[in-house]
Design a protein that fits this description.
The protein contains no helices and 21 strands. By secondary structure, it is mainly β. The protein has 2 domains: 148 residues, no CATH class; 152 residues, no CATH class. The strands form 6 sheets. Strands 13, 14, 16, 17, 18, 19 and 20 form a 7-stranded mixed β-sheet that branches. Strand 10 and strand 11 form a beta hairpin.
C-alpha cells in the first residue's frame, strides 16, 4: 500500500505533494544602498547622439538558510528590473538589482522564498499541516508559514539587437585615402538606447500594482560604433605627413524585464559604457600640429551577445506576503 499526500487545483495541477518541496516566504530583503545611478550618456563625450537609458544598481541582503528564490516587486512599473549579481557569506545573501533610469527613488522590494525545511518556525506555532517526503524528515510543505502561490509564468527571450537604431552599430571609415571620415572626425550617429527593443509576452494575470516576478537571466551583450578618420598633408616643408584617428563608442547591456498590465517584457538596459578617441600622426615637417589621446575605459569583450537562451519566469501576488 502506498502512503503519501497530494493536493491538486481545478486544472489538475499539483499544489502540494510529498515529493516536490514547496517554497515558503521567509522575508523581504533589506536594501542597504545604491551606487547613485549613472550612464544617461557616454562618459567624456558630448556631441551627437550622446544619450543612454541610464541605470541604478541597488544592493540588498537577506539572512536565511538554504538558497532563496527572489521575486522583484517593482515600485515603479514603468522601469526595467533585473537581478544582475548574487553572493553568499555564511547565511547572508547579497543581491544587486539593476533598474533603468538614473533616479534612485522608488527602489523595488525583494521577496525571498526558501524550501519548507529552511523556514524558521516559532516554538509556539503548534497548529497546522506538515507534509514530509517518504524519508519522514524532509518537509515539502508547512502551513504555518506562507507557501508560494504562483499565479502564472512562461518562457521568454531577449531580442538580438539591443539598440534603438536600425541594425547593430558597426565600423565606417578607414585609415587611408579612401576613408569617408576626415581626420579627428567624431560624431556618434547610432542610438544606443533600448527603449523600443524588447519582446512582449501576453499574460492576463499580470497587473501593474501587486504583481512580482522571478526570472533569472545572464543575457548580456557588448556593441560598439567605430569611426576611422584620415588625412595626408603634403607640401615642400611637410612631405606626406599622415594623420589617423579612431572614435569608438561602446555599451555593455544586461537583460532586464518589465511588468505591464497583461504583459511581461524582456529587453535590455545599459550596464556600463565608454567612449574612446585616439588621434596620431607620422613625423613630417614643421606643420605636424598638436594631437592627443583620450581613453574612457576598455570594453569588456569584443562585440557580441552571450547567454541568449530562453528564460523561464514565474509571477505571484506580492500582497499575499505583506
Amino acid at each position: 500500500m502506498a502512503y503519501g499526500f497530494e493536493a491538486t487545483n481545478d486544472n489538475g495541477k499539483v499544489i502540494i505533494n510529498d515529493t516536490v518541496e514547496n517554497l515558503h516566504f521567509v522575508s523581504k530583503a533589506t536594501r542597504t544602498g545604491d551606487d547613485g545611478g549613472g550612464y544617461s550618456d557616454f562618459p567624456q563625450y558630448s556631441s551627437g547622439s550622446d544619450y543612454l537609458d541610464g541605470r541604478v544598481i541597488h544592493t540588498y541582503t537577506v539572512s536565511c538558510t538554504g538558497t532563496p528564490i527572489v521575486f522583484i516587486k517593482p515600485n515603479d512599473y514603468s522601469r526595467w528590473h533585473a537581478i544582475i549579481k548574487q553572493s553568499v557569506s555564511s547565511n547572508t545573501w547579497t543581491f544587486q538589482v539593476l533598474i533603468s533610469g538614473t533616479s534612485t527613488s522608488n527602489p523595488p522590494d525583494l521577496y525571498c522564498f526558501v524550501n519548507a525545511d529552511d523556514i524558521p518556525v516559532a516554538s509556539g506555532d503548534t497548529w497546522g499541516m506538515q507534509v514530509f517526503k517518504s524519508d519522514g524528515t524532509t518537509k515539502t510543505f508547512d502551513s504555518r508559514k506562507q507557501p508560494l502561490a504562483i499565479t502564472g509564468g512562461g518562457s521568454v527571450s531577449h531580442p538580438s539587437d539591443p539598440t534603438d537604431s536600425s541594425g547593430l552599430p558597426g565600423l565606417t571609415g578607414t585609415h587611408d585615402s579612401s576613408s569617408i571620415h576626415f581626420w579627428n572626425y567624431s560624431n556618434n550617429d547610432h542610438d544606443f538606447r533600448s527603449t523600443t527593443r524588447y519582446n512582449e509576452y501576453s499574460n492576463t494575470n499580470i497587473n501593474a500594482s501587486t504583481t512580482m516576478f522571478s526570472c533569472p537571466s545572464l543575457a548580456q551583450g557588448v556593441h560598439e560604433r567605430t569611426q576611422k578618420g584620415y588625412k595626408v598633408s603634403t607640401s615642400f616643408l611637410n612631405p606626406d605627413q599622415h594623420h589617423y584617428s579612431t572614435a569608438l563608442w561602446w555599451v555593455m547591456y544586461r537583460g532586464v524585464f518589465r511588468l505591464r498590465s497583461g504583459y511581461f517584457d524582456a529587453g535590455w538596459n545599459v550596464y556600463i559604457a565608454g567612449y574612446q578617441f585616439t588621434s596620431w600622426w607620422t613625423e613630417g615637417g614643421i606643420f605636424g600640429g598638436g594631437g592627443g589621446n583620450i581613453t574612457a575605459g576598455t570594453r569588456p569583450y569584443t562585440p557580441k551577445n552571450i547567454n541568449m537562451g530562453s528564460n523561464s519566469y514565474i509571477i505571484a501576488d506580492s500582497s499575499r506576503y505583506d
